[in-house]
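Homework help board

Subject: predicted structure for assignment chain

Our instructor gave us this sequence and asked us to write out the predicted structure in token form, then describe one feature. I got the tokens but I'm not sure how to describe them. Can anyone check?
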Amino acid sequence: MLKYRIITALILIPIVIAALFLLPPVGFSIVTLVVCMLAAWEWGPLSGFHSRTQRIWLAILCGFILAAMMLSLPAYQRAIELVQVTGSLWASLAWWVLAFLLVIGYPASAALWRHSRALKLIFGLLTIVPFFWGMVSLRQYGYADNHHTGAWWLLYVMLLVWGADSGAFLFGKLFGKHKLAPKVSPGKTWEGLIGGLLTSALISWLFSLFVPLSLSPSTLLICSVVATLASVLGDLTESMFKREAGIKDSGNLIPGHGGILDRIDSLTAAVPVFACLMLLVY
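My token output:
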């Protein structure tokens, strides 16, 4: 399994980086929309929609919502200036605060949504739609002055998340003793969380040495720490929904890694939260 994970990662990471820097904003938006539709397909079983037909319609619904929002954007305006986008990012911030309460209160909190397909569907839309707009708005950041500014910011967030995941796995294996959220994800530990934060801090420092980031050090620190913690919450939230649904992986599209949601669960929280803090708060 580890061999497949490494091989798949070595193939996917260059593809993701190439998409960030080589695709124009429209092409990048379309690719991100397809990823979100696949994520919606995998969210089906998590929200109680198990048949292939139901999952296909769920993916189509998600794609239609995102496409309709994209087509409503005037070509001359940046995405972040429009209410569709700002509303999505603020909604994401509110959703992840609620998700935090649901995770720390689990399994008692599940009584509020366990038997409601509608609520679980709304939770899915609050996870996927703001993720899409976080990706798009960050990619468009500074595009008029430098086509690659937004790509560097997105790569920065992704490296933070990948670093947090890797550091948490390594430190958890070596030093993990105290469970972080045993009722949601028994494998995660406080030692792993600290290791992930330290790894992300190192990546942030190294990245800022070689890439000019247009934020003050204190603002960058706040955005980075909150985004890293949000990435952990995104992982735990998906684990909570999978545990309720009685499934191990959200899918099997990526060899050794499970499904699309299994790979982007941390990013679904980190990207819109980082975008909201960086573009709307600061």
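Reply (TA_rk): Your tokens look well-formed. For the description, you could write something like this. The chain has nine helices and two strands. That's the kind of observation they're looking for.
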